[in-house]
Amino acid sequence: MSNDNGEIEKLRRTIEQLSDQIIRSKEQEERILNEFSEMNNELVTLQRLLAKNNASLDAARKEAVAAGESKSSFIAVISHDFRTPLNGILGMAELLQLSSLSEEQQNSVQVIQEAARLLLKLIQDLLDFSKLEAGQMRLEIGEVELEPTFKYIARLLEPKVIQNGNQLAVDCDSRISPVLEGDSTRITQVLINLIQNANKFTNHGLISIRVILVKESESSQLIRFEVEDTGIGIAEEDQKTLFQPYVQTKQGRSKEYEGTGLGLSICKSLVTLMGGQIGVISREGEGSTFWFELPLGRKSEPEETEVSPVEKPSDMMDSPFEEPYSWPILLADDNGINRQVVLMQLKKLGITQVDYVSNGEEAVSAFLSKKYGMILMDNMMPIMDGLEATRKIRAMEQDEMRHAIPIIAMTGNVMDGEKEKCLEAGMNDFIGKPFTLESLRGVIQKWQHPMESSEILNMSIVSEIAELNNDGDQTLLETLLDMYRAETPGKIEVLRRHVVSGDHNAAAECAHDLKSGSLSLGIEYCSTLFARIEQFAKTGQVMKAEPLLDALMPAYQEACQALEKVII
């Protein structure tokens, strides 16, 4: 009996232990569930905070993008609005300078030009600084040849240097490769800025430019540029903030030395962008040495190519164009002063058949009512801007199978990407305000085409081919167009190389082949261009055909599009 009682007692204790374990397990389970619930609540809270933060970040990003776009748009408007009246000032001053003036009047015109150029420089500094600040400045890597660069800078700055009674000396390390790799435009910009700065604060002294090879490897050279002057020097306390924007020394703020205080800041930003460093060594009253070091890639020296000499007219103003320009020009610009300047510039170039309108809508109407040889189109105009007007004109030309009239953008907005926008809209070229008489002459001559054959296709030839059937699924016209598309772009590139290299015989042969192939398909306007290049080449004047090269691919593409419409 006692054994039974012992077993029962053991069983009872076992049951109690199991019950206790079950109770503790349930308590632990409850604690875990509570902890899980708390963690889940925290996770939900975190998700909500994350969603809120993401929304805030997205809103901030959109706000930043909108602010950047607004700033870019504002800068573009400012650039256009400032450069347009400057075009009037500089354009009129240039025309005035070409007229018969007394010495006193010539001096007055020079003062006007210098003041306008100074204002243009200040505007350009502000635009460059804005682009650098916004991270929109992009390097253009290409060949850097220091010797021609310094010759160009010397020619450009010599008048101002002489005016201040200074001398300019250049010493270039002979160990530096003649051809390097970098952004030649930005290097030139920094050098010009530093030399102009040195000249501004120096009178009857010496400005020395030294270019030194610091170190080199097989693929690159580290070059040090130094611009030393014997001018007024810079106080030690001013040197610490010299490269900050809008900062000027006490002397620099005086009326004698004009500027924005952005020049050195821009130089530092450009040098940093090119992977270099910049600094200054100076003592007040003892002159200054501004220096910057840049790593530049090494390149083999370019091969010299023979170029046939081209005879140029002795007096460009008496004979501004190689061929007389006899077709009317349409000028679209909403600024009355600018219209007047361009009209006078065109008159000086011998072009008197000019119609003008003040917005894009009027430009489209004028295009529909009259045949023009060229349109000079301002970009920013009321009612309809120049880009939209160009798109409408191009659409109508395609519908009517007419060749594209040259449209030249004239704009004060010279921000990065503006030229690309113009070309995408269908414009042929770009000229930034303010522009000189020579710049205007050059762009008109470049796009000066004969208007005898204004139709893209000779429809009588096209119709004859279209009526002929071909064995298989394609018509004969489709087959010939496919062959023309396969061969022509490559041949145009070959022709371009022959013209640029001055190979008269090869250019004449290639142009004749392209002309014949185009005529056989009834491609009228394109064949006219090839015929003109052939004629230039046959008479030993192939270099005169260069302005026609840019028109070839657009003319070829228009012809293909026109033939497609006939096939459909």
Write out key terms for the chains shown.
single chain; 568 residues; alpha/beta; 4 domains; 7-stranded mixed beta sheet; 57% helix; 13% strand
Number of domains: 4
Order of helices and strands: HHEHEEHEEHHEEEHEHEHEHEHHHHHH
Radius of gyration: 36 Å
Query: Regions with pLDDT < 50 over 5+ consecutive residues?
Result: 253-257, 302-319
Helix content class: 55-70%
Largest sheet: 7 strands, mixed
Query: Distance between the terminal alpha carbons, to the nearest Å?
Result: 114 Å
Structural class by secondary-structure content: alpha/beta
Given the structure, what is the number of helices? 16
Count of distinct strands = 12
Strand fraction band? 5-15%
| The CATH top-level class label of the largest domain | Alpha Beta
For CATH, the homologous superfamily of the largest domain is named as Histidine kinase-like ATPase, C-terminal domain
Oligomer state equals single chain
Based on the coordinates given, report the CATH architecture of the largest domain.
2-Layer Sandwich
Overall outline: extended
Any overview of this molecule?
Strands 1, 2, 3, 4, 5, 6 and 7 form a 7-stranded mixed beta sheet that branches. A 5-stranded parallel beta sheet has the order 9-8-10-11-12, sandwiched between helices. The chain contains 16 helices and 12 strands. It is of the alpha/beta class. 57% of the residues lie in helices and 13% in strands. The longest helix is centred in the N-terminal third of the chain and has 96 residues. About 4% of the residues have low confidence. The chain has 4 domains: 38 residues; 157 residues, 2-Layer Sandwich (Heat Shock Protein 90); 118 residues, Response regulator (Rossmann fold); 109 residues, Four Helix Bundle (Hemerythrin (Met), subunit A), CATH 1.20.120. InterPro entries: CheY-like_superfamily, HATPase_C_sf, HATPase_dom, His_kinase_dom, HisK_dim/P_dom, HisK_dim/P_sf, HPT_dom_sf, Sig_transdc_His_kin-like_C. It holds the Pfam family Hpt. It comes from Paenibacillus xylanilyticus. In the N-terminal section; belongs to the phytochrome family. It catalyses: ATP + protein L-histidine = ADP + protein N-phospho-L-histidine.
